[in-house]
Amino acid sequence: MMKLLTTYSLLVFMLISVGTQPVFGQTYEERRKKILDEQTNTRAEINVLDARIKTYEQRVNQSQNKYEELFKQYQDINRLISLQDNKLGTLELEQSQIQEEIDITQEEIVLREKELEQLIQNYKDILLYTYKNGRTSNLELVLSSESINQMLVRSFYLQKLEDQKVKQADQIRVRQLELEGVKEDLQQSHFKNELILDEIRDEKVKLSDQQVVQRQSVEKIKSESDDLLSELRRIRQQKENLEQSFSALIADEDRLREAENERLSRLAEARKIADAARRADEVAKYSTPINRSFVSDETLIAYEQNFSASKGQLSWPVNSNTVSKKFGVTRNPLYGTRTEHPGINIVADSGSDVKVVSDGYVFAIQPLPGFGNVIFVKHGTYYTAYGNLSSINVQNESVLRAGTVIGKSGTQSSELGETLFFMVRKNTTYLDPQEWLRK
Question: What's residue 163's pLDDT?
């Protein structure tokens, strides 16, 4: 009889231990919430791209067959294709996030099914044990006790066993409900995934259709225009003017800096002159700054180090990362010839805030044909330029911190339309801005 009681006690202890095992739901919920938050952010970006796509779709539909309008239509289609391609990539990102959600949900289902299977097996073990040992009733076991104390102990453990059977059954029902909830999450994730895949397929069809329209537009322009080559020469001349002006402005700034450093050196020497009258004359002679806002060489070195260390991490100058014209040599689909672009054109909402990408100071502001109003910023031996601005918020020699709003991007009436021209240069070498901006 004592052996039977001891067996009951061990079985109750085992069941209590199983009932206190940790639940995996908390980790799953945190991981799933993180992915859902990422999906929300990605969907917000897709909505912004959708709004821009609709704007350009309206313009494309309103374009006429005149050469000027046709060329404008081509530019808008080019930007529309860039936006749709960007949206396609963002949709694919969202789809991968949903797939990740599906994967962790399936992992959770496997864990919960194993946990439920273990609970059911434990419950079966209890029932089987009770059945096999049912020849001795609970009342008989209590009444056959040799003492009051033994009877109380047996009653206690028998009650514990009954309570544990009820608790085990309740746990099984709870786990079954939780498992059904996770499976419902999985169904919702699959449904979202199918919707996104359908949207991706639709966007690919739209992109393909727009590319056909673009090719037709190019052919019309080629057939209707007699002065395409002169347009090409004009673009090349604009590029040369930009580069020559940029270099000339840098040279002028360097000369002023050298003259200012020379003035400061002579002023320091003048202050050391022993004769008071002569010292006063010399100090007065070199006291007037050449630059109104002189940035020290030490500050320029700090600017340069900061810019150099930020490659691939600089914030985009506008709230958009859609590039309609890339850096470097490109084949012009209108002329079948090759041109070299010294920067990139970024499609942005009309009159968007333009922010400087790194600490520096304005060393020139100048209008240039083909690029509109341009702000030139110095970051040590690195330089950035922001063109096609519809308005300017800073003055020459303004000291800037990264993120400072320096103006507004182009509007429909601007030379390059609703676009920001952005350029990066180190000494005399032009660099690909996209390699410096955050991916």
Answer: 64
Residue ending a domain, among 189, 224, 259, is: 224
Left if phi > 0, otherwise alpha if psi is -120 to 50, otherwise beta: which for 41? alpha
| Structural contact between residues 284 and 273, judged by C-beta atoms closer than 8 angstroms | no
- When pLDDT is cut at 50, 70 and 90, the band that residue 12 belongs to is very low
Q: Looking at the predicted structure, is the pLDDT value of residue 202 above 90?
A: no
* SS3 assignment, position 17: helix
On whether both 185 and 69 belong to a single domain, the answer is: yes
Q: What is the per-residue burial (b if ≥16 Cβ within 10 Å, else e) of 306-321?
A: bbeebeeebebbbebe
**Residue 105: exposure state from Cβ atoms within 10 A (0-12, 13-18, ≥19):** buried
In sequence order, the β-bridge partners of residue 420 are 346
Collapsed DSSP state (helix, strand, coil) of residue 337: strand
Mean pLDDT along residues 59-74: 60
- State whether 207 and 236 are in the same domain: no
Number of domains in the chain: 2
- Domain containing 27: what range? 2-224
Q: What residues pair up with 347 in beta bridges, in sequence order?
A: 322, 419
**Which residues are CB-neighbours of 186 under 8 A, at least 6 positions away?**
102, 105, 106, 109
CA terminus-to-terminus distance, the chain: 75
Shared domain check, 303 and 196: no
* CA–CA distance, 56 with 69 (Å, rounded to integer): 14
- The answer on 154 and 283 residing in a single domain is no
Cα–Cα distance, 287 to 265 (Å, whole number): 11
Distance CA(221)–CA(63), nearest Å, equals 13
- One domain, residues 185 and 244: no
What pTM did the predictor assign?
0.55
- Let me know whether 175 and 314 are in one domain: no
**Tokens 């007699």 sit at which residue?**
226
| Amino acid occupying residue 131 | Y
- How far is Cα 335 from Cα 346, in angstroms, rounded to an integer? 22
* 369 & 286 share domain: yes
| 369 in Cβ contact with 353 (< 8 Å) | no
Q: Return the minimum-mean-pLDDT range out of 61-65, 96-100, 264-268, 351-355.
A: 61-65
The closest of 317, 307, 315 to 410, measured between CA atoms, is 317
> 411 with 351: CB under 8 angstroms?
yes
pLDDT tens-digit map of 415-431: 899 999 999 999 989 99
Decide if pLDDT at 6 tops 50: no
Residue linked to tokens 């359908």: 198
